[in-house]
Amino acid sequence: MTNLNKDQIKELLPHREPMLLIDELRNIKKLFSATAIVNVKKDSFFVQGHFPSEPVMPGVLIVEAFGQAAAALTANGLDKETYNNKLVFLMTIEKARFRNPVIPDCVLELNIEAIRSHGKVWKYKGTAFVDDKKMADALWSATIVNRK
Mapping DSSP to helix (H, G, I), strand (E, B) and coil, where does residue 84 land? Predict the structure, then answer.
C-alpha cells in the first residue's frame, strides 16, 4: 500500500479528533519514508486561541503531526501481530526548527524518514512544507510500548 486515507490511519493510531492531525499518508516506502498531509483550516481547533487576529499553527502541533506521521509509517510497515495492542510514544525531540509560520487554509506536507531503529526505539527526521516553502524541520525518537 502506498497511500493511507484518514480512516485507514485511524486503524493504526489511537488519536481521534481533534488531536488526529494527519489527513493522509502518501508515497509510503515501507518502514523508510512517507509524506503526511495536514489540512490546516481556518476552523482548526487551535486557531481560535492561537492567535485570534493572526492565526498560526503552533509549532508543538507541527511536532505532534511529525510524530503521528512517523507512528503511522511504522505501524503500517510492521507485521500486524507485532504492532497489535501497542502505542508509539515520543522520547526525544532534537533540533526542531520553525522557519516560517503555518497560516490556516493551507496544506502542510510533512516529509518524514525513519533513519534508524534499534529494538523498540526508532529515530526519525522530517521536514514540513507549504507550497514548496520549508516551514519546519526536526529530528525525534519514539518507542513502541504495550498498551495498558
Answer: coil
